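Retro notes (design track)

What went well: tokenization of the new backbones is finally stable.
What didn't: we kept losing track of which sequence belonged to which structure.
Fix going forward: every design gets posted as structure first, then sequence, in one message. First example under the new rule, 256 residues:
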């Protein structure tokens, strides 16, 4: 065995081989760790990075031995790997956009939006009031962004865009990411003038955040939405709040 390439090429190829091997092993260990769309991303990344690792391995071995058709093999492996990584990353970005970015609501056909609703409101009561919430959204006939634990309840409503608040990393928005919820609400009302933002998961947010933080988030969101002519509606089970918390919310939100 003798070197067929300069020593610095050997060092270069060894470093790249180690780096590519590490990132391939990183994804390989996560092959069965995730579910749904994220699993698709991990599997694809593992396959295409594995091809790139095989190419680097051939390149490294070629520093010591003559390998027949080495250039053709490397061209094929690197070409498929690069195209595969581009495809995988594009699909992943589209997944993130579909999970985190609400789409603009367009009124079509004979549908006509209802009267504008402006202000900040609270619907307090038991969870049995979910029927009242659904009827309210239907009656408003306005573009409505709903942050909820139950997105399936709103999927059949023409004007509603539900976003799932969940700890599942590959779906929806985590309850600890209050700033992400605020950003998506603002983006939605800018794209849909006169829209409504409905928070139907306050109890869940309070499980993962202290009340002062959640209250500050709601007040900040209110202050951002009202000047834009939008409405903010907060739905809450009053049994989840103590008297002091109820008083604070009622100071900022009008009972609905």
């Amino acid at each position: 065995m003798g070197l067929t390439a300069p020593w610095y090429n050997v060092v270069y190829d060894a470093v790249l081989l180690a780096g590519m091997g590490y990132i391939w092993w990183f994804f390989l260990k996560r092959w069965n760790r995730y579910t749904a769309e994220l699993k698709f991303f991990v599997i694809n990344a593992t396959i295409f990075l594995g091809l790139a690792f095989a190419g680097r391995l051939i390149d490294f071995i070629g520093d010591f031995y003559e390998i027949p058709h080495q250039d053709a093999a490397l061209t094929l492996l690197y070409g498929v790997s690069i195209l595969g990584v581009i495809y995988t990353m594009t699909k992943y970005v589209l997944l993130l956009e579909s999970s985190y970015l609400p789409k603009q609501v367009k009124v079509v056909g004979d549908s006509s939006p209802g009267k504008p609703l402006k202000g900040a409101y609270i619907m307090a009561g038991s969870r049995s009031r979910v029927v009242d919430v659904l009827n309210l959204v239907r009656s408003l006939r306005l573009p409505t962004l709903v942050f909820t634990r139950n997105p399936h309840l709103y999927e059949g409503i023409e004007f509603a865009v539900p976003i799932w608040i969940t700890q599942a990393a590959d779906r929806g928005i985590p309850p600890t990411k209050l700033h992400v919820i605020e950003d998506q609400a603002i983006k939605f009302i800018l794209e849909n003038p006169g829209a409504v933002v409905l928070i139907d998961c306050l109890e869940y947010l309070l499980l993962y955040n202290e009340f002062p933080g959640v209250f500050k988030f709601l007040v900040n969101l209110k202050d951002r939405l009202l000047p834009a002519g939008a409405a903010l509606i907060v739905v809450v089970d009053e049994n989840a709040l103590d008297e002091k918390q109820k008083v604070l919310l009622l100071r900022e939100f009008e009972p609905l």
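Added context from the reviewer: The chain has eight helices and six strands.
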